[in-house]
Amino acid sequence: MSSDDAQEPLPAAVPVFPLNGAVLFPRGVMPLNIFEPRYLAMVRDAMAATGAANRVIGIIQPRAGGNDDGPPPLYQVGCLGRISDFRETDDGRILIALVGTSRFRIGAELDRDTLYRQVMADYHIFADDRDEPDALDAATRTAVEDALRPYLDARGLAADWEAVQSADDDGLITTLASVLPLEPAEKQALLETVTLTDRAQTLAALLSFSSGPGPGFTPGSGSMQ
């Protein structure tokens, strides 16, 4: 990330897209196929916004619970994403790609005057998200790789181990945390770790203690290429 990017202001008010089981990490990339009217409006508004709010939306997970009369409660931590690719289809959908910019903690949810939800975002605890993360120490990196192999074997999955071993630390941990079929609460725990080392250690522990095949992961869909 360039120094200019790191100095760009972050919006205080953030439109949020609640997605269960999906988390965006700083410097991670998330493709989205937008078709619901409220989120089509959200993306179009983000593209038309000026200043810090231009081309940004927040990705956050909904919590279980709540009631049928209102929107589901949200986890307190999400990630701001900048729209890096935008394409409208002939059937009215919008295809976008988001690049993770910074995580945020919800300060308050705003009274709704749009089809979509908006929150006040507090970035202070994640002030280092726009800096390049420190490299992992050798033991932590090895622990992740050692835990990954039996985790995939238990699910009948394979990985390109040459690509895994040659990936940079941040790219490897972000990719694994994003694509592996972990439970929503586990993905949230990874999102809320402050440093890359904390995230890698948490990921290694989750992989080591996980058992049984997980849903939602198709061989090859998230493999390292």
Strand order of the largest sheet: 1-3-4-5-6
Structural class: alpha+beta
CA-atom Rg in angstroms: 18 Å
The SSE order reads HEEHEEEEHHHHH
* Helix content percent band: 25-40%
Strand content: 15-25%
- Low-confidence parts lasting 5 or more residues at pLDDT below 50? 211-225
Short description:
The protein is built from seven helices and six strands; from the N terminus they run H-E-E-H-E-E-E-E-H-H-H-H-H. With about 220 residues, the protein is of the alpha+beta class.
What topology does this entry show?
Layout: H1 3-7, E1 13-18, E2 29-34, H2 37-48, E3 56-60, E4 77-88, E5 94-109, E6 117-122, H3 138-154, H4 161-166, H5 169-179, H6 184-192, H7 196-209
Parallel strand pairs: 1-3
Antiparallel strand pairs: 1-6, 2-5, 3-4, 4-5, 5-6
Helix pairs in contact: 3-7, 5-7, 6-7
Key descriptive features of the protein:
2 domains, 225 residues, globular, Archaeosine Trna-guanine Transglycosylase, Chain: A, domain 4, alpha+beta, five-stranded mixed barrel, disordered C terminus, 6 strands
Explain what the structure shows:
With 225 residues, this protein is an alpha+beta fold. The chain has two domains: 3-130, Archaeosine Trna-guanine Transglycosylase, Chain: A, domain 4; 138-209. Helix content is 33%, strand content 23%. It contains seven helices and six strands; from the N terminus they run αββαββββααααα. It has helices at 3-7, 37-48, 138-154, 161-166, 169-179, 184-192, 196-209; strands at residues 13-18, 29-34, 56-60, 77-88, 94-109, 117-122. It has a five-stranded mixed beta barrel. Helix 3 runs parallel beside helix 7 and helix 5 packs across helix 7. The radius of gyration is 18 Å and the shape is globular.
